[in-house]
Input
Amino acid sequence: LEKKALVQRRATLSKPRVGPRIERTVQLLITPDEFEDVLFQVGRASKQADILRFLLETDDPLPRVSVVKEAVNAVSDSSLKALEKRGWIELLPAQTLVLPVPGFAAENLSGAEKGVLRTLQSAGHPMQLSALPAEMQAALEALRERHAVSVLTEPPRVALRLSPAEMADAIIALRGSEKHRQVLEMLALEDGAVWIGWVFAQTDATKKTLDDLAAIGAIAQDEARRWRDPLAGKAFTLSRPPTLTREQHTILKTILPALGKFDKPFLIHGVTGSGKTEIYLQAIAQVLRRGQGVIFLVPEIILATQIIERVRARFPERVAVWHSALSPGERFDTWERVRAGKLPIVVGPRSALFAPVQQPGLIIVDEEHEPAYKQDRTPTFHAREAAIELARLNDIPVILGSATPDVVSFRKAERGEYHLLTLPNRILAHRDHLGVQAGMLKRKSVAVPHGNQLMTLPLPPVTVVDLREELKAGNRSIFSRTLSAAIHETLNRGEQVILFLNRRGTATFVMCRDCGYVSDCPRCDSTLTFHNPTRQLVCHHCGYRGDAPTLCPDCGGNRIRYFGLGTERVEATLKREFPQARPIRLDRDTVRKAGAHYTFLEHFISGRANVMIGTQMVAKGLDLPMVTLVGVISADTALYLPDFRAAERTFQVLMQVAGRAGRSPLGGRVVLQTYTPDQPAIVAAAAHDYHTFYRDELEFRYEQGYPPFKRLARLTFAGNGRERSRAEAEELARQLRLRVDREGFPAVEIIGPAPTYVERVGSRYQWQILLRAPNPAEILRPVPLPLNWRVDIDPVSLL
Output
């Protein structure tokens, strides 16, 4: 139909789910003395109210009915009778009055006539003709003929029966303007404009009520944009730039002249606590002075919490937070404020790279080694590489920072592709940045710097505990004797502890000891993890949940046992063995709710908790000065996974979590528990020796042909049916091998196909092909991929 021009295809943007939030305010424009006049005009039309208002304002105490009807247009007798029925007025009927003529001589009058005349004269006021007795009527008629009396006809009149105060209430009731009065009286107690929602909350008013008052000029209604700010309500203490160390000053002298152009990325290799963030802040200050913006990337929301505190303390009201946990309204408003240039600094995980920063002048990628920067869902991209390309397009510098740089990044720095800058010493910032109050320091020997005095801190010593020896000694606890003693000492001193375990849940699998049955996910080829608080089995791949069995589904036995270790079990054991512990658990199960990470950190920093138990979240860049002990429950958790980066990830995590200890004058230590104390990655981490690990890892990568010596592409297929998925993978692998052979690409390997580490996820079978080549994209670009295939160039994980 398109070819025949019968239909036309057109792409349109979908309507946004949210829009700007408009805040309406109301302000009083009149004085309380004018309230009554306003209330008599607003509300519904009421002839009865109009009658009462005329009677209240007229000077005639008994106005004629005709005058009232003339003053109140189209008023009917029924309205007057309704008011009389309420008892608010009295309708005086028409009447004939008789009164004597003054000075009339009564000598020629009869006795009856004289009697009537005396009665009229003695009354002192006109008398109603109908009130005189019948026997007087003949004499009265004779007096009228003699002109001794006058007869007057009085028209119907209205008499008011309410006081002025009662009249005002009656008119308001008739017009239904009680809501209007509530609004006026409420606004009279406020100072200036009031949010319309508060008016509605404090009165019975509706929008029409306010429109009525605004129409006659009693109030003013204004509209203003109300920004939905995720940082609203959070206090930030302003800070001043500290005195820089010689190394920091040298690095800034290298970075600042490069602002305004792109040359090569800067890679800052600084040990934990060496002052990388201060370099970022001073570079940001220079960029802002140039009228430009900054994108500051962090790997996780939890790390963004403290970074935002540091950045906003230095640059108040100029920082935007950007991450997936924002509500749609917060995301909409943040987008607009950033695009308008009101918030020139954007801090957040990888999605912050796409914030519409006006005139970007600098991109910072903190903890550049983190795999969280890689988006493994379509479209796949690595935020670090995307940041470098964005900086190139905008001709601006990009700064990468890490205590444990990615092996590929450090190799590029060695080869001159990056500018390598080093911060070898851990420092303690001046007292304004300590975050440790003098009253919290319980050790008498603690040295606290004064003024801008700088202080160098050693990296915390690491004690490696061989868990095999613990078992030989009969210790079955998850805490070694060394770690247990250290926890006791630390908590008794009033200091804080971090316990790290890179696994959630209470037990990693559930098994029947009679028949060997293991609880597996019905949709995935993985075991279910037991979570004790909910007594549920959970799949951490597809999210499946089920109740934990009390009897074996296979043999019916009751010897169901829980094996393995997770953060929930660590928490339960800690509470049992250390009564003085007040733990909080920080993992993806506990911080699902928006803003939970802020609450958890504030809770821990304020001292309401003294032990933080967590997964990789607790290892990433947190600055917690009261933490003097870090315990690694098991350093072997990810060491032997079938991934060429397993050793690097283990080393990086151990180095990062060890860096959480000893960041204040209190000092600190690390206890690292492992079953393989001689493994090179663990030995290097215990010694804080990045360079030794890097050289060993580089040698391994060279031998195996892994990055940085060759690049990888991972092609993953997901489909229904094991055999169908296998056949699809084998067919694509055959086509790729034919292309490589036909084109004669040198140094290219096609590995697989093979099932993924977890073959079945969500009832779909997954197979993968690895392409190892100098430029995988060149090989794959002309190859049409069938449906359900996903390509990941330079994957950060093969699991």
About this structure: The CA atoms of residues 572 and 681 lie 30 Å apart. The chain has a mean pLDDT of 83. The chain has 25 helices and 34 strands.
